[in-house]
Amino acid sequence: LLTDVSGTALEKNITLASPTKVELTCKLDENSNLKNPQVTWKRGSETISHTSKTPNSWTIQLTISESSQLGSYICILKGEIEVSATFHLQVPKIDGKEKRIITYEADRAVMVCKTEYDPKAWTWYMTNGTELVPINKILPTDKFQIKRQSGNVNRLEILKLTQEDRGVYWCEAAFELGSSKGRFELKVLSITAPLKPFIAIVAEVAILVTTIVLYEVYSKKKEKGAAKEFDQIEQL
């Protein structure tokens, strides 16, 4: 990772699905004005010694074997100015992990989770209060169907939707170094929902027509009353 001599911190995400060896390098541009900087590698408050260096680069080698070794590793170069670069070591993320789904009663909802690498296992959950209930273990298959389209793509279908099905659902992809979750918010509308704007318009039109009719009736009565009064005056 090339540090920016302007002082802007650079960041890079590194995805790890299984235990492996990682080599992280910070390198200054050859035209950098930052000469002979003091270099420090850190993970949190822990200082890490670099394993190799050249006049413009500094490298650490890591063996990542468990989830606790994931996280952010930063190299800091101090001289006339200070520059830094951060490497984020993480398990594969769920693509588009925040999604909202809106559908109707008696229809079905489809939720799809996808990752860059094949996980060891997929698990789907529904939220029950503050708890996550695993769908593939306790809920009926005629209502919930889980389909593994490929190694890195998993799909949940909820059939014959009712208002009770609305809520938050999660997919979880488990890797050797940890797991990632994707969140879905399901909203189930009544089948009459699309008709509500039409019903509101019809109601407004009905009120308007009724108002016009009443006004015409009132106007005619008023005209008849005025004509009768005029006839009485003429007779007098």
UniProtKB/TrEMBL annotation:
Bilayer-crossing regions? 198-218
Task: Give GO terms for biological process.
Answer: cell-cell adhesion
* UniProt keyword annotations, A-Z: Disulfide bond, Membrane, Repeat, Transmembrane, Transmembrane helix
- Residue span(s) of domain Ig-like: 3-86, 92-190
Q: Identify the GO cellular component terms for this protein.
A: membrane
Q: Which PANTHER family match?
A: CONTACTIN, PROTEIN SIDEKICK
Record's protein name = EMB protein
Organism of provenance: Melanocharis versteri
Which gene codes for it?
Answer: Emb
